[in-house]
Amino acid sequence: MAKLTKEEVKHVAHLARLAITDEEAEKFAQQLGKITDFAEQLNELDTTNVEPTSHVLPIVNVLREDVAQKGLNRDLMMLNVKDQEAGQVKVPPILED
């Protein structure tokens, strides 16, 4: 198992735009090394007859059929609008000329 070096941790921190001290880099190198060592234990398992999966549970999309429905009455909805023009809601401009 390859031990992560302090320089590798600092390099990854730099790529992630994280500022870490030498002490933090050393601490993270030890912690990440333990994590990768633990994950390496999975290589000891016999997976000969195990099919690859992307998810452990069968997932099926449950979608309702898309059916057009009558919308709300526009004239009734426009009664709640503060400012309107040509049947549409008028809002203040967000871009200046």
From TrEMBL:
GO molecular function: asparaginyl-tRNA synthase (glutamine-hydrolyzing) activity; ATP binding; glutaminyl-tRNA synthase (glutamine-hydrolyzing) activity; transferase activity
Reaction catalyzed: L-glutamyl-tRNA(Gln) + L-glutamine + ATP + H2O = L-glutaminyl-tRNA(Gln) + L-glutamate + ADP + phosphate + H(+); L-aspartyl-tRNA(Asn) + L-glutamine + ATP + H2O = L-asparaginyl-tRNA(Asn) + L-glutamate + ADP + phosphate + 2 H(+)
EC code: 6.3.5.-
Keywords: ATP-binding, Ligase, Nucleotide-binding, Protein biosynthesis, Transferase
UniProt cross-references to InterPro entries, sorted A to Z: Asp/Glu-ADT_sf_sub_c, GatC
Enzyme class: ligase
GO biological process, any: translation
Keyword Transferase on entry: yes
Family (UniProt): Belongs to the GatC family.
Subunit and partners: Heterotrimer of A, B and C subunits.
Annotated function: Allows the formation of correctly charged Asn-tRNA(Asn) or Gln-tRNA(Gln) through the transamidation of misacylated Asp-tRNA(Asn) or Glu-tRNA(Gln) in organisms which lack either or both of asparaginyl-tRNA or glutaminyl-tRNA synthetases. The reaction takes place in the presence of glutamine and ATP through an activated phospho-Asp-tRNA(Asn) or phospho-Glu-tRNA(Gln).
NCBIfam families attached to this UniProt entry: gatC
Name of the protein this chain belongs to: Aspartyl/glutamyl-tRNA(Asn/Gln) amidotransferase subunit C
Protein species of origin: Lysinibacillus composti
Gene expressing this chain: gatC
